[in-house]
From TrEMBL:
Residues 672-690 have a biased composition (Basic residues). This is Zinc finger MYND-type containing 15. PROSITE patterns: ZF_MYND_2. GO terms for biological process: negative regulation of DNA-templated transcription. Residues 110-124 have a biased composition (Acidic residues).
Length: 690
C-alpha cells in the first residue's frame, strides 16, 4: 500500500480538491449558456427536501483584471487533462509546487495591455510605410494572430504550429511582405518580452460559495480567453444563471466536508447579482438576505475545512462523488465500496495488499490519542493572532540565563522561553527543537561513545532539505538552547534553489538580535529585550543544491532528515549507501509509523542494513495532517529513528558507531627471577657490539 499523506504540498492537496470538484461540476452542468430547464430544474425539488444548515452561506463574486494564466507546452486549458491533471489529482504522487512550472504560470495583464498599445502603434506606422512604398497591404488581423492580446476571442488565436502558415497566406509570398517581416524581426524585442506567443487565459471572475466558517462549498471560473481553444466561459454576462446553477450544485454536492444540505440564509457579495437572484433563490427553500453583503472574513476558528474532503484509496474519487467508509477491521483506509476494498485486499504481491497491512494499520490508529496528547490550548481564542504583523512579538525576549537542564517536552520549553500555550510557534519550532532533542537525548542514548554533549563544535548535515531551508531563520533557536556549542548546518538536496548552491553565510547573534552576514542581503530581529549575557554566537549555514551522494567534503558529526519518505524519491537509493560508507549517526523523522516501516524496507534494499525502532518525538508539530484516503494520525516530525548500518565484514571499514567494547584486562607480568652467578644480562653483548 502507498500513502502520500504528509509528503505532498498542502496547497496541491487543496488544488486537487478544487479542480476535482470543478471538473465534476462542469461535466454535470453542461455547456455554458444553456437554459436553466432540464436537470437543474429537477434538482430544485430535491434541494428543497435537504436538511437545513444553520450556518450562513455566502456567494462571493471576485473580479480579476490584472492577472492572467499562461499555459505551458503540453498543457490544455480547462478542467480536463490539461495542467497535468493526472499528476495533480494523485495518480503520480509525490508532487511539489515546482513541478507545475512547465504547465502553468501567472502573467500581468496590465503589462500585456501596455504591449498591446505599443503593438497598435507599430501597426499604424507599418501601414503608413506600406502605403508610401506602394507595397501590398498586410491585414493587421492576420499579423496580430502572431501575438494575440488577452482580450481577443479564442477563435482569433491560431493553434500551435499554424502561426507561420497563416503569416505566409497573409503575405501571399510577395517580396515586399518578406521584407516587412524581416524588418519586423529587427524591431526591439520589448514587445516579445511582455507577453508569450500565445494569449494568456484571463480569469475575469471567480464565483465562490462558502459558509460563515470559511468552508469552501463550490467554485465556478469565468474565463475570457484561451490558448488556441474555446474558452470555459464568456466574461461576466448573464451571471445570475451561472450563479444559480453553482448554488444548486454546491447544495446537492458540497465540496467541503458534510452531507448535502441547504443554507438557512444566503448572502451575495454583488448588488446586481443580489437583485437578479431574488426571484430564483426562494425556489430552493433558501432565504436570501435583504441587502447585499458588504464585507466578509473567516471566523477565528477558520481551519480550511475543505481540506478534509476524503478520497477513495483505490479509485481516488472524492467524498462529493461517492460515499466513503473505512475498512471495518482497521478503520484506517477509506474505500468507496466493496469492489475497491476487495481489489486492495487482494493486491499482488502480498506485502502491498491491504490484507498484509490491515493489522499493522490498526495498531497505528490506536496511537492517535497518544499523538494528540500535547499541552497546547488552541481552542481558546485565535491561534493566529500572534502571527499578525500588528500584534505582539512572535517570540519573547531571550531569557538572560541559559537553561539549567535538558528539555524533554513542549511544556518545559514553553515555560522557560516565556511562550503562551496558545502560541502556534511550535509549528515552526518543531525543526530546531527536534535537532536539539536528537543532540541532547537520542545520540547519547544510541551512540554514547561519541560523547557528543561535551563537543564544543558540531557539523550537521540536513539532508533532502527543501522547506526546512525556507525556514532557516528558526534554526537560530539552537543558539539559544545550545549557547556553548559552535554549530554548522549544511543543507543538502536537489530540491534546494539552484542559485543557492555553494552559498555560505552566518547567523550572528549579539544579545537578542540576529543578523545574516556574508552577502546574503537578509537581516532579521525576531525578538527584542534586554542585553543578554555572553558574547557573540554564530551559526554557520552552508547550502549544497545536489543529492547527498554527490556531496563532497569532510565527514559530518551528525546527519538529520525531516519527514524523509525514503520510498518516494529514487535518490535515496544512492544517498543511503553513501551514508553507509560514512557510518555517521543519521537520524530521520517521519510523520507516521507507517512511514517508518517503509523507510526501514528501503534501507534494507539499498544497503542491507535497517533502522532502529521509531520513538515518539516530544517536539512534533501540534497540528494533525489531514489525510485524504485514510484516517491514520499524521503529524509533522511525529517519530524519530536512526539508521542501523550493515556490519562491515573483512572490508577494513570502520565499524558502525555503537556501544564501546570493554577494554581488555591487562595480563599479569611474569615474576622476576634472580640470575645465576656468571650469567650475563640478555642483549648486553649485542649493545656493546653496536
Amino acid at each position: 500500500m502507498e500513502f502520500v499523506s504528509g509528503y505532498r504540498d498542502e496547497f496541491l492537496d487543496f488544488a486537487a480538491l478544487l479542480f476535482g470538484w470543478f471538473r465534476k461540476f462542469v461535466a454535470e452542468r453542461g455547456a455554458v449558456g444553456t437554459s436553466l430547464e432540464g436537470r437543474w430544474r429537477q434538482l430544485e425539488a430535491r434541494i428543497r427536501r435537504l436538511p437545513q444548515d444553520p450556518a450562513l452561506w455566502a456567494l462571493h463574486v471576485l473580479h480579476n483584471r490584472s492577472v492572467g494564466i499562461s499555459l505551458g507546452q503540453g498543457a490544455e486549458p480547462g478542467p480536463g487533462p490539461g495542467l497535468g491533471a493526472a499528476r495533480l489529482l494523485g495518480d503520480d504522487p509525490p508532487l511539489h509546487l515546482r513541478d507545475l512550472s512547465p504547465y502553468i504560470s501567472f502573467v500581468s495583464l496590465e503589462d500585456g495591455e501596455e504591449g498591446e498599445e505599443e503593438e497598435e502603434e507599430d501597426e499604424e506606422e507599418k501601414k503608413r510605410e506600406e502605403r508610401g512604398a506602394g507595397t501590398e497591404k498586410v491585414e493587421p488581423e492576420e499579423d496580430r494572430e502572431l501575438a494575440p492580446t488577452s482580450r481577443e476571442s479564442p477563435q482569433e488565436v491560431n493553434p500551435p504550429g499554424e502561426s507561420e502558415e497563416a503569416e505566409q497566406e497573409a503575405g501571399g509570398g510577395e517580396d515586399g511582405c518578406r521584407e516587412n517581416r524581416a524588418e519586423d524581426k529587427t524591431r526591439p524585442q520589448k514587445r516579445k518580452g511582455l507577453r508569450s506567443e500565445a494569449a494568456p487565459l484571463h480569469l475575469s471572475c471567480l464565483l465562490l460559495v462558502t459558509d460563515e466558517h470559511g468552508t469552501i462549498l463550490g467554485i465556478d471560473l469565468l474565463v475570457d480567453g484561451a490558448q488556441g481553444t474555446g474558452s470555459w466561459g464568456s466574461g461576466t454576462e448573464n451571471l445570475a444563471p451561472r450563479a444559480y446553477v453553482l448554488l444548486c450544485h454546491s447544495m446537492a454536492c458540497p465540496m467541503g466536508s458534510g452531507d448535502p444540505r441547504k443554507p438557512r440564509q444566503l448572502t451575495v457579495g454583488d448588488a446586481r447579482l443580489h437583485r437578479e437572484l431574488e426571484s430564483l433563490v426562494p425556489r430552493l427553500g433558501v432565504k436570501l438576505a435583504k441587502t447585499p453583503m458588504r464585507t466578509w472574513g473567516p471566523r477565528p476558528g477558520f481551519t480550511f475545512a475543505s481540506l478534509r474532503a476524503r478520497t477513495c484509496h483505490v479509485c481516488h474519487r472524492h467524498s462529493f462523488e461517492v460515499k466513503l467508509t473505512p475498512c471495518p477491521q482497521c478503520s484506517a483506509v477509506l474505500y468507496c465500496g466493496e469492489a475497491c476494498l476487495q481489489a486492495d485486499w487482494q493486491r499482488c504481491p502480498d506485502d502491498v495488499s491491504h490484507r498484509f497491512w490491515c493489522p499493522k494499520l490498526a495498531a497505528f490508529v490506536e496511537r492517535a490519542g497518544e499523538l494528540a496528547a500535547l499541552p497546547f490550548t488552541y481552542t481558546t481564542g485565535d491561534p493566529y493572532q500572534l502571527l499578525q504583523g500588528d500584534g505582539p512579538a512572535i517570540m519573547p525576549p531571550v531569557p538572560p540565563d541559559p537553561p539549567r537542564g535538558l528539555f524533554g517536552s513542549w511544556q518545559d520549553y514553553y515555560t522557560w522561553r516565556g511562550l503562551s500555550l496558545d502560541s502556534p510557534m511550535a509549528v515552526l519550532l518543531t525543526y530546531p527543537l527536534t535537532v536539539y532533542y536528537v543532540i541532547t537525548r537520542l545520540v547519547p542514548q544510541s551512540f554514547p561513545e561519541l560523547n557528543i554533549q561535551n563537543k564544543q563544535s558540531l557539523k550537521i548535515h540536513v539532508v533532502e532539505a527543501g522547506k526546512e531551508f525556507d525556514l532557516v531563520m528558526v534554526f537560530w533557536e539552537l543558539l539559544v538552547l545550545l549557547p556553548h556549542v559552535a554549530l554548522e548546518l549544511q543543507f543538502v538536496g536537489d530540491g534546494l534553489p539552484p542559485e543557492s548552491d555553494q552559498q555560505h553565510f552566518t547567523l550572528q547573534r549579539d544579545g537578542p538580535e540576529v543578523s545574516v552576514r556574508n552577502g546574503s542581503g537578509v537581516s532579521a530581529r525576531p525578538s527584542s529585550g534586554t542585553k543578554e549575557k555572553g558574547s557573540r554566537r554564530d551559526l554557520q549555514i552552508k547550502v549544497s543544491a545536489r543529492p547527498y551522494h554527490l556531496l563532497q567534503g569532510p565527514k559530518p558529526d551528525l546527519v538529520i532528515g525531516f519527514n524523509s519518505g525514503f520510498g518516494l524519491k529514487d535518490t535515496w537509493l544512492s544517498s543511503l549507501p553513501r551514508l553507509q560508507s560514512l557510518r555517521v549517526p543519521a537520524f530521520f523523522t517521519e510523520s507516521s509509523e507507517y512511514g517508518c516501516v517503509m523507510d526501514g524496507q528501503t534501507m534494507a534494499v539499498a544497503t542491507g542494513g535497517g533502522t532502529s525502532r521509531p520513538q515518539l518525538n516530544p517536539f512534533r508539530s501540534p497540528f494533525r495532517l489531514r489525510a485524504a484516503d485514510n484516517c491514520m494520525p499524521w503529524y509533522c516530525n511525529a517519530f524519530i529513528f536512526h539508521l542501523v548500518y550493515k556490519p562491515a565484514q573483512g572490508s577494513g571499514a570502520r565499524p558502525a558507531p555503537g556501544p564501546a567494547p570493554p577494554s581488555p584486562t591487562p595480563s599479569v607480568p611474569p615474576a622476576r627471577t634472580r640470575r645465576r652467578r656468571g650469567e650475563k644480562k640478555p642483549g648486553r653483548g649485542a649493545r656493546r657490539r653496536r
